[in-house]
Amino acid sequence: MRAIPVTHAPPSPAADAPTPSSVLHVLDAALDQSHEVKAEVKACADDLASTNAEARARIADGATTLPAAQALQDGLAVEERMQGCADDLQLVTDNLARGVDEVKAVEQALARSRAALAESQAALAASRNAENVANELAMHDSKTGLPNRTLFDDRLAQAIAGAERHGWMLAVLFLDLDRFKLVNDTHGHAAGDAVLAVVAERLMRDARDEDTVCRNGGDEFLVLLMNPSGREAVAGVAAQVRAAIETPIGLDTLQFAITPSIGIALYPEHGTSGEMLIIRADAAMYRAKQLHSPCEFFDPSTDSTPPALAAVRAPG
In the chain, is it the N or the C terminus that has fewer CB atoms within a 10 Å radius of its CB? Predict the structure, then answer.
């Protein structure tokens, strides 16, 4: 009988999932074996047909009997070859079964990988969300939700860069709530925080999308106006802001009448840096407070830098 080489695929380590290439190797080997077994079966069938044809030819020539020994030998030879084919087919079946098992193992490994990828993506999304929340908290005031001074300074720097390119005017309004300390001292910091939150909401309600409202700390607020049409327009916004804040604020049974002092500095008339615009708007606010004026623009002939800011000098 002609020997048919049969490949036995080495078992995969239990701890490691088979790779697609190893599965393909097993299935390809089984396919090759099946082709060889098919060829062997065909050869057996040809040998059997040849034996039968020889017997028919002898009968046609008048023979009435055939040598028993020869017939037995031929039959045993064919039987042996067929048994070999059956054995080879069993090996092919075993290899195919192993290949199917490994395909299932690969599918399970892929499912685990997809699940792990989904978990990683979810963890990454959660991490990014936490980072965004942290950035939001770092750039906003916790009591009012307004941008804090860090974010305001960044936006003001960007606004100055745009104004320099396009020839825009900018206005910085510096607001201080008059006698706000009395609210905290008389009614407690919880009431003071509630009043600040209402003021912040009113400032945001009246602000344009392109403008920025900031809590500077304590009872101070900053407003950045982008490209106002002129001094009159800025004064109109300041009056609108003052009217919004002066509307009595009701908390439980209490009514708070809050008024702001507002100082204004314009870019580029009063300064070309964010720091100097804020300093000069602060100086104008001090004069408004002293004069009990609704708002004042910076005036270099009368305004002086507040003592805390005296160390900062204007460029040039």
Answer: C
Phi and psi for 246 in degrees, rounded to 5? -75, -20
Residue 193 is a catalytic residue: no
Catalytic residue among 88, 141, 176, 219: 219
Beta bridge partners of 265: 172
Which one, of 184, 232, 230, 240, lies nearest residue 207 by Cα? Answer: 240
* CA 285 vs CA 16, 177, 200, 311: distances in Å: 74, 11, 18, 19
Token pair of 23, please?
A: 């599965």
**DSSP letter (8 states) at residue 15:** T
pLDDT reported for residue 102: 76
pTM comes to 0.60
Q: How far apart are CA 260 and CA 174, in angstroms?
A: 10
- Cα–Cα nearest to 55, from 46, 45, 64: 64
Given the DSSP bridges, would you call strands 295-297 and 260-267 parallel, antiparallel or unpaired? parallel
CA 171 to each of CA 163, 192, 290: distance values in angstroms, whole numbers, following the listed order:
11, 28, 22
Of 193, 201, 248, which is closest to residue 219 (Cα–Cα)?
193
